[in-house]
Each structure stands twice: as structure tokens, then as C-alpha cells.
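pasting for the record
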Amino acid sequence: MIAHEIRAVEGGESRYATSGDPDPHFKIQSSAIDPPETPNFGANIDGYAAHDPQNTCDPSSKPGTVALRAIFNEAYGNHTGYIGRECSVGDTSEHKEGRALDYMLDSNNSNDRAIADSILNWMLATDRHGNTPSPGASELCT
């Protein structure tokens, strides 16, 4: 769902963002903006976790979410990045557990679009050890 959550749609959220279906019109573009520095992870990484929807309420920002926002801000300059959300606001959301990040970019701004493409290319790239992204991740962008 990364591609759908990063992609902003004029007039509201894309219907694909909430349906879980791949957006047939969405294509990741190459980006002139360099991706973030990739942390030096080892060759053996954890497998992809299944979706774990919110089931408690602790909206304090979790270390991994804070670290991801810091990586983005270091690479692309400071942008608003919402993590926590009050438990009484809206429906089920991983923001209410402090483990979701909304990194705010303007789809009408060419530099912000280039940043979004850079983030997606970085997140979907094969790492230096040959670990490839989830097969489902690449399907989101076709």
C-alpha cells in the first residue's frame, strides 16, 4: 500500500488507496533526486510480515517510525511527517499505535513528485545483498 498512500490525488484519496487494489494508472518514475543512504543491514533479513492492523492504543511515536522519518528528512529536507493519532479520531489506524508515517508531499509540486519517486524506487530496490522487495510491493506499481 505504500504507493497508494504516498500518491496524492486531487480532490481526495484515490479509491485504490482504500480498496487494496493496484492502481492501473500508477507508475513509479525514475527520479533525479538521490535516494537516502541505506543503513548497512546484514545479508540475512527478516521475511515480510503480514499486515498487523491496530489492536491497541498507544499513539506515542515508535523508534522505527521516527527513524524512517529522520532518514527521509535527512535525504530530502524537512517535511511534515505525521506519526501518532489520538485514539478517538477515525477508524482503525496504525497511527494510533505510533507505527505509521504520513510523509507530506504535494503531488502538484514537481520536486515533491521527484521525492516521492525517489522514496518508492529506494524502498522497492534490490539491496546490496540481493534481497528483493516483496513480490506484492512491485505489483502495487503496475
